[in-house]
C-alpha cells in the first residue's frame, strides 16, 4: 500500500511539473502576443492621426491608396494576433478545465481517505488507549517503535488535513483564472468583430481606388517610376558624399591609396563605432511619432506590382513640424541640400553613418558633436498634400543597413 502511494505521488508530481511548465510557456506566449497586439493598436492609432486626420489636404490617388493599403496590412496583422491570443486562451481554458477535474477528483480522494483515517483513529481509541498500546509492548525497543508510529500517524493526519486545505485553495484560484480567461476571450472576440468590420470598409475603399487607378494604369505607373528615379538619384548623391568622406579620412591618416570604401579610424572613432554596434536594436526612433510607410529592401509597388521599388532605408510618415533627432551620439559629417530630397544631415558614428533626408530646417552644422536624441532639424511638409515624410538610412561605410535591425521596435 505504501509503495502504491509513493508511485502515485511520484506520477502526480511529474504531471504537476509538466502542467506548470506548460502553463508558464503559454502565459509567456500570451504576454508576447498582448504586447504585439497593443503595438499594432497603437500603430493604427498613429496611422489615423498621421495619415488620415488632415482631410482638408487633397491627396493624390497614389498617396491615398498607399496609405489605405498600409492601414489594411496593419489591420490584418492585428486581427491575426488577436486570433492567436483567442486560440491560446481556448487552450488555456481547456487546460484549466482539465486541472479542475483532476483537482476535484484528488480532493474527493483526500477527503475520503481523511474521513476513513478519522474513523479508524476513533475506533482504535475506543478499543485501547495510546498508553495501553505502548504498555502492551514486549520490550523497550517495540515500545519506542510504537511511539514513533503514533507520532508519524498524528503527523500524517495533520499533513492530510493541510493537503485538503491546499487543494481547496488551488481549486478556487484556478476557478478564478478560468473565469478571467473566459472574460478575456470574449473581449478579444468582440474586438476582432469590430476590427473585421473596419477591415471590410477599408478593403471596399481600396477596391474603389484600385478601380480608378486601373482605368489609367500607364499614367500611374510612370508616376511611380519617376519617383523611383528621384529616390535613386538621392541615394547616389548620399553615397557620393560618403565616398568623399572616406577619401578625406584616408588622406588625413596619410594613406597614399585613394580608397573610397573603408574609413581610416582614430582610436576614438573605433570606440564610438563599437559603442554604436553594441546598441544595435536599441536605438531610439529619429522622430518621436511616426509610422514606417516604406521599409528597407527591394519590393513591389503596392499600386503597380510589376514596378519594383528599391529602398536603401525607410520612409517614416510623421506629424507636421516634427523634430528630427540623432539616434546616437556622433559628429555631423555633412549638411547638404539634395535635389528632390530637400536638406540632408549625415551623422558619423565611427565607420557607421545615419542619414536624415527631407528636412525643411537644420539646427546643426558640419563638424558639430551630437548627443543621442539631440534635435538636428525639422521634417519638410509638402504643402500640396500635407505629407511629412522622413527618409532615414543607416550605412556601414558605403553599404546600406536595414534600419529595422538598429532602431528599437521599428
From TrEMBL:
<dbReference type="InterPro" id="IPR016047">
    <property type="entry name" value="M23ase_b-sheet_dom"/>
</dbReference>
<feature type="coiled-coil region">
    <location>
        <begin position="86"/>
        <end position="120"/>
    </location>
</feature>
<dbReference type="InterPro" id="IPR011055">
    <property type="entry name" value="Dup_hybrid_motif"/>
</dbReference>
<dbReference type="GO" id="GO:0004222">
    <property type="term" value="F:metalloendopeptidase activity"/>
</dbReference>
<dbReference type="Pfam" id="PF01551">
    <property type="entry name" value="Peptidase_M23"/>
</dbReference>
<feature type="signal peptide">
    <location>
        <begin position="1"/>
        <end position="25"/>
    </location>
</feature>
<protein>
    <submittedName>
        <fullName>Peptidoglycan DD-metalloendopeptidase family protein</fullName>
    </submittedName>
</protein>
<keyword id="KW-0732">Signal</keyword>
<feature type="coiled-coil region">
    <location>
        <begin position="171"/>
        <end position="244"/>
    </location>
</feature>
<feature type="domain" description="M23ase beta-sheet core">
    <location>
        <begin position="311"/>
        <end position="403"/>
    </location>
</feature>
<keyword id="KW-0175">Coiled coil</keyword>
<dbReference type="InterPro" id="IPR050570">
    <property type="entry name" value="Cell_wall_metabolism_enzyme"/>
</dbReference>
Amino acid at each position: 500500500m505504501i509503495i502504491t502511494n509513493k508511485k502515485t505521488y511520484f506520477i502526480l508530481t511529474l504531471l504537476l511539473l509538466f502542467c506548470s511548465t506548460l502553463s508558464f510557456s503559454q502565459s509567456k506566449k500570451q504576454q508576447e502576443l498582448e504586447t504585439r497586439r497593443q503595438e499594432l493598436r497603437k500603430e493604427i492609432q498613429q496611422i489615423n492621426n498621421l495619415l488620415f486626420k488632415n482631410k482638408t489636404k487633397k491627396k493624390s490617388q497614389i498617396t491615398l491608396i498607399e496609405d489605405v493599403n498600409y492601414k489594411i496590412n496593419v489591420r490584418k496583422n492585428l486581427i491575426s494576433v488577436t486570433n492567436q491570443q483567442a486560440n491560446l486562451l481556448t487552450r488555456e481554458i481547456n487546460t484549466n478545465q482539465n486541472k479542475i477535474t483532476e483537482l476535484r477528483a484528488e480532493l474527493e480522494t483526500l477527503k475520503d481517505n481523511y474521513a476513513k483515517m478519522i474513523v479508524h483513529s476513533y475506533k482504535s481509541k475506543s478499543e485501547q488507549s495510546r498508553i495501553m498500546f505502548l504498555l502492551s509492548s514486549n520490550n523497550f525497543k517495540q515500545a519506542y517503535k510504537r511511539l514513533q508510529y503514533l507520532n508519524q500517524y498524528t503527523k500524517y493526519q495533520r499533513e492530510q488535513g493541510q493537503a485538503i486545505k491546499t487543494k481547496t485553495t488551488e481549486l478556487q484560484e484556478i476557478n478564478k483564472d478560468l473565469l478571467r480567461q473566459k472574460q478575456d476571450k470574449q473581449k478579444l472576440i468582440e474586438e476582432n468583430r469590430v476590427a473585421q468590420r473596419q477591415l471590410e470598409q477599408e478593403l471596399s475603399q481600396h477596391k474603389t481606388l484600385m478601380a480608378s487607378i486601373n482605368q489609367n494604369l500607364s499614367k500611374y505607373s510612370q508616376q511611380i517610376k519617376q519617383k523611383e528615379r528621384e529616390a535613386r538619384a538621392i541615394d547616389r548623391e548620399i553615397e557620393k558624399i560618403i565616398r568623399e568622406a572616406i577619401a578625406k579620412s584616408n588622406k588625413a591618416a596619410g594613406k597614399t591609396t585613394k580608397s573610397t570604401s573603408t574609413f581610416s579610424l582614430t582610436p576614438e572613432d573605433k570606440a564610438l563605432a563599437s559603442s554604436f554596434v553594441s546598441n544595435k536594436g536599441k536605438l531610439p526612433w529619429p522622430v518621436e511619432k511616426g509610422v514606417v510607410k516604406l521599409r528597407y529592401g527591394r519590393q513591389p509597388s503596392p499600386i503597380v506590382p510589376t514596378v519594383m521599388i528599391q529602398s536603401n532605408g525607410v520612409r517614416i510618415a510623421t506629424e507636421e513640424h516634427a523634430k528630427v533627432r540623432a539616434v546616437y551620439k556622433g559628429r555631423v559629417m555633412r549638411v547638404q541640400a539634395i535635389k528632390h530630397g530637400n536638406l540632408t544631415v549625415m551623422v558619423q558614428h565611427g565607420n557607421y553613418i545615419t542619414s536624415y533626408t527631407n528636412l525643411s530646417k537644420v539646427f546643426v552644422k558640419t563638424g558639430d558633436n551630437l548627443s543621442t536624441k539631440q534635435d538636428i532639424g525639422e521634417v519638410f511638409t509638402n504643402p500640396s498634400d500635407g505629407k511629412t515624410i522622413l527618409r532615414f538610412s543607416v550605412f556601414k561605410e558605403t553599404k546600406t543597413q536595414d534600419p529595422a535591425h538598429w532602431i528599437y521596435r521599428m
